[in-house]
Amino acid sequence: MDKAFELVSLKGGAYSIRSKEHGETMHIGSGPGQEALELHIRQQRLGQRVGEWKESDPFVIWDIGLGPAGNAITAIEELADTQVPVEIHSFEIDTSVLDFALLHAKELGYLAGWEGIIKSLLTEGVAYPKPNIRWCLHRGDFSRQAPKAPAPSVIFFDPYSPARNSEMWNLDTFRSLWAAVSDVSAPPCTMTNYTRSTSVRVTMLLAGWFVGAGVPTGDKDVTTILSNRLHLLEKPLDAMWLSRVRSSTNAAPIRGRNYEKGPISAEDYAKLATLSQFAPE
User: Fold this and answer.
1) Measured distance CA(276)–CA(260) in Å, rounded
2) How many Å separate Cα 2 from the centre of its chain?
3) Are the CB atoms for 106 and 115 separated by under 8 Å?
4) CA-based angle 103:104:109, to the nearest 5?
5) All domains of the chain in start order, with CATH
6) Helices (H), 59-155
7) Is the distance from CB of 227 to CB of 189 less than 8 angstroms?
């Protein structure tokens, strides 16, 4: 019996994976495939944007927190009919959860038929699910190393929660991500994730990102979407949200590798209030 993970049955009948170490169930609301569609694929209009891609370089997707590969596989299935060159760069510190998922491909459903591709990815570090789609695996702690991949147009951000994995949600990590897309030559980029935490959103904003309210998924009534272009956000966080930050008991940005909850400091609030996202129209 696996000591690190276990299969769990969700309300809708789908199966997902629970990490015993972190005490968290992945894609808890609706299962890996459905959450990937709602949160990442449809919200970022992936199929449409790839179809409109006119550059000579490939359309690049960063998949941060490969996990059991639900997000990447759903993206590849969404792009089944495209002929546009696409690169998917998956980042993962520990692929043991994907090894566990392979053992339970039948129960999980979305992995059925993908076993060969996944094994190639794990053993060779690269796989070609379609001739025009190159899927690369980057092993290591993303929070401790600069990502070595071309600038992305789409980012799936899906690590464990800040309470269990704060280093992936801190100011340094989001600054590293921002550095990859902040150059004027970088393509328009959006990044989706499942959180609605005020402290995480403050951290993202102070790192340089434009931040908005994201779509509901599973049991979450709202999530978060980021971009390097303000106009790409349908519901950017506004002055009303900013006014609530001052009174929040959990609005301090995440620094270092410990998640310490608390109100925002006067200095951090002053920095937040001067960001162009909150400038009067």
Assistant:
1) 27
2) 26
3) no
4) 135
5) 29-278 (3.40.50.150)
6) 70-78, 96-103, 105-108, 115-124
7) yes
74 with 42: CB under 8 angstroms? no
Burial group, residue 135, by CB count within 10 angstroms (0-12, 13-18, 19+): buried
Residue type, 93: I
One pLDDT digit (tens) per residue for the chain, 281 residues? 467 888 887 777 777 788 887 777 766 555 567 889 999 999 999 999 999 999 999 999 999 999 999 999 999 999 999 999 999 999 999 999 999 999 988 888 889 899 999 999 999 999 999 999 999 999 999 999 888 899 999 999 999 889 889 999 999 999 999 999 999 999 999 999 999 999 999 999 999 999 999 999 877 899 999 999 999 999 999 999 999 999 999 999 999 888 889 999 999 999 999 999 998 86
Give phi and psi for 18, each to the nearest 5: -110, 130
Query: Which pair of structure tokens corresponds to residue 139?
Result: 């092993």
* Cβ atoms of residues 271 and 208 within 8 Å: no
CA dihedral over 73, 79, 83, 88, signed as positive or negative:
negative
CA separation, residue 143 to residues 1, 140, 174 (Å): 31, 9, 9
Pairwise CA distance, residues 105 & 6, whole Å: 13
Residue reference for tokens 């950017």: 236
The verdict on pTM exceeding 0.70 is: yes
Picking from 58, 151, 138, 59, the residue whose alpha carbon sits closest to that of residue 94 is 138
